[in-house]
Amino acid sequence: MVSALFTQLASAIFCHNPLPTLAAGLLFAAHPIHTEAVAGIVGRADVEACLFFLLALLSYMRYCKYRDKKIYLYICLVMSAAAMFTKEHGVTVLLLCAVYDLFVVHRLHPKDFLVILNQKKYGALREGLLHLILTSIALVLVRFHLMGSKTPDFAPADNPASDNASWHTRAFTFFYLPAFNFWLMLCPRWLSFDWSMESIPLITNQYDPRNFFSACFYIACLHFLIQILRSLSTQKSSALSGSHGSCNCTSTCCTWNHRIQLGRQYLRSTYNKSYSCVMNNNGSNNGHHRASNGHSSVQYRSSQDSCTDCYCFSGMHNHTDAVIMATSLMAFPFVPATNFFLRRIRGCRASAVHTQHGVLSP
To answer: How far are the Cα atoms of 173, 213, 214, 278 from residue 208, in angstroms, in the given order?
Structure first.
């Protein structure tokens, strides 16, 4: 079931292209590293969390397509709660939904986030983000309360790096772990049902060759991030230049605002007639738009209450969208799994205990 849901997600990411969709689904189902999750009863929680994670993400994608159907938004929130209570990092699906809405649906650049607060056309985006943020805060607080309002206390065997008194050892080892896990995805040569104790040897000095591998990994990630930001800027520049002339869009993912700015010339060339809003008795169009050619009509439905504020969305349609979603799927769920903040807290405690012991020792 989880593999089928992931294949459906891959189909959306790859614009229903059958070859990459099939390859992604088969690779997800048969990847050797997934045997760690299904080999033992305890690891089945990862599979269940993945199930709820994918259901939440797919529900939010449907909500972005049909903004007037709030049921998809609430299903997403319920599934995200189920994912988090199954496995803590399941809550990151809410962050992934926000990334999808910001960068894929609305194609915003990070430096343009402030415009969300004061522009009417982003009303639907504000609604979705507000639900995601409030739900994230509520779930984290509930989870923290269920843990007794304190961070979990791991045994030294569970996290040897966090108990090490040396700051350099903790830092070098922590930065190596994401690079090591990324390599396992590409080359699952080593598998283990429990990556605890010293299954991954600590990096105790700066001359360890694994530090070079870590440096290469983060340099590549930084370069990758810069390329994504440049691509987002290029898309924005293309959209702005197209709004003053002919439409450069080749898909239905143009905003209705952009189409209306182009005027009836674009729609006449598409439908050979005219474009109008469907008004109700109160003078509002309720997000309906109609274009007719004299014999038949095509009616569109959007999420806003005026023609100039609505988005026509049909999914991801370029490589940047696919890269953003794929990168987010790999990175966000991994962040809480690293126990980074817990390592810092425990590392500080270990350093304090070590210092106190040194002071009290004769």
So the answer is: 10, 10, 11, 68
Angstrom CA distances, 263 to 112, 245, 311, stand at: 26, 10, 16
* Farthest CA pair distance, the chain: 97
CB 54, CB 7: distance < 8 Å? no
CA dihedral 96, 101, 105, 106 (to 10 degrees): -130
Q: Is 148 left (phi over 0), alpha (psi -120 to 50) or beta?
A: left
Name residue, tokens 């189902």. 29
Please tell me the predicted confidence (pLDDT) of residue 64. 92
| Residue 285 structure tokens | 């169009």
Report in angstroms the alpha-carbon separations of 51 from 5, 46, 218: 8, 9, 30
Note the pLDDT tens digit of each residue in 17-73: 899 999 999 999 888 887 766 666 667 788 899 999 999 999 999 999 999 899 999
The closest of 84, 96, 5, 95 to 45, measured between CA atoms, is 84
With tokens 């993945």, the residue in question is 50
Q: Cβ of 231: how many Cβ atoms within 10 Å?
A: 17
70: left (phi over 0), alpha (psi -120 to 50) or beta: alpha
- Token reading at 354: 């070590």
Q: Which two tokens stand for residue 126?
A: 């504000």
pTM of the model: 0.71
Encoding tokens for residue 242? 């197209």
DSSP H/E element including 239: helix 210-242
Task: Tell me the three state secondary structure of residue 274.
Answer: strand
